Amino acid sequence: MKMLRKNRKKLGNKGFSLVELIIVIAIMAVLVAILAPQYLKYVEKSRVSADEANADNFLNAAQVMTVDPDLNFADGTGTITWTGSTVTVAGDNAATITAQLTSILGADYATAEVQSNEYTADDNDTYVVTIAIADGIPTVSGSWGAGS
Predict the structure, then answer these.
(1) What is the pTM of this model?
(2) Nearest to 77 by CA among 91, 64, 63
């Protein structure tokens, strides 16, 4: 008699019922609905931080260049422009600036990509670092500005 009861218990326990599975799926859907927006905010915040860190790297590299006594900049202006996924260097000291950026930031600096939606909007998609040299005295400035 005891043997029959044990067998019945094993046969009757085949898994979860459909109602139990639906309840678990509903609970998971509610959790996803609550957590997804927070996750997206976190991802965007990290993209903004990455873009600002890259912009700071360009500005810091320019500041390092201007205090290097071995570099001789001509009077004039050099600009480092970062738009989308392109970094361009222009101006009177473009060759010197390009060589120094490669030495300070590495060869892949020119493909740094703007990731954040905050900095890819039409009115705010370009970061410009300006190195101005007048009478042998360099000044460096950087800012997000209107895109091209």
Answers:
(1) 0.71
(2) 91
Q: Helix (H) and strand (E) counts for the chain?
A: 3, 4
Cα separation, 86 vs 66, in Å, equals: 23
**8 Å CB contact between 124 and 84:** no
CA-nearest of 86, 83, 80, 84 to 58 is 80
- pLDDT tens readout for residues 32-90: 999 999 999 999 999 989 888 988 988 998 888 888 888 877 888 889 988 878 889 99
Cα Rg of the chain, angstroms: 29
The set of residues, in sequence order, having a beta carbon less than 8 Å from that of 89 and lying 6+ positions away, is 78, 79, 80, 81, 97, 98, 101
Backbone angles phi, psi at 145, to 5 degrees: -150, -175
